[in-house]
Amino acid sequence: METLAPISIDRAPSVPTPQPVRLTINGTEHTLMLAPWTSLLDALREHLHLTGTKKGCDHGQCGACTVLVDGVRINSCLTLAVMKEGASITTIEGLAENGELHPVQQAFIDHDAYQCGYCTPGQICSAVGMISEGKVRTTADIRELMSGNICRCGAYTNIVDAIQEVMHVTEKP
Ligand code: FES
Ligand code: FES
């Protein structure tokens, strides 16, 4: 009977070593040593301790992990950090400027647009990205374009009210 040759150690699959990834986070450049499979979300939370960005589903379904990459909103749980080499990332911690809250942050406070608050950083980053996309004309547009961000606490109405105020959208669906 044929016997299998032993696997030689030097032919065994190797584990990729961490590699440097350069990211500008909230205006500060960082070089992180990351395993190639590290998500942008884990890079932010585990390596930079920026825990404002939340991990909800970790599968691209809830929007809790939304951040802005070069001004565009993305789900950071579905994005490998190495794919964003050289990019500029804005998280909820980076939205306020000179001690002033971003208008969307202020509107969320004014409209009590959160309950447990878990989804709030993602909701706010998503709203900021949506506003710069320039597609909103009606309240229905806000609901549609924010539909990737799930709030389990039923604060949808107040979230839409807050965004509507910042965007000066008055038309009702
Ligand atoms: S944690 Fe990324 S979409 Fe839910
Ligand atoms: S405020 Fe609780 S999930 Fe949105």
Protein described:
- This is 2Fe-2S iron-sulfur cluster binding domain-containing protein.
- It comes from Spirosoma rhododendri.
- Pfam families: Fer2, Fer2_2.
- One of its GO terms (molecular function) is oxidoreductase activity, acting on the aldehyde or oxo group of donors.
- This protein is α+β, with helices and mostly antiparallel strands.
- It folds into 2 domains: 19-94, Beta-grasp domain (Ubiquitin-like (UB roll)); 103-167, Orthogonal Bundle (DNA polymerase, domain 1), CATH 1.10.150.120.
- 28% of the residues lie in helices and 14% in strands.
- It has helices spanning 40-47, 103-110, 120-133, 139-145, 156-167; strands at residues 19-25, 28-34, 66-69, 72-75, 88-90.
- A 5-stranded mixed sheet has the order 2-1-5-3-4, sandwiched between helices.
- A hairpin with a 2-residue loop joins β3 and β4 (72-75).
- α2 (103-110) packs across α5.
- The longest helix is centred in the last third of the chain and has 14 residues, at 120-133.
- It is elongated.
- The mean pLDDT is 93.
- The structure holds FE2/S2 (inorganic) cluster (2 copies).
- The site of one FE2/S2 (inorganic) cluster (FES) has 11 residues, from loops.
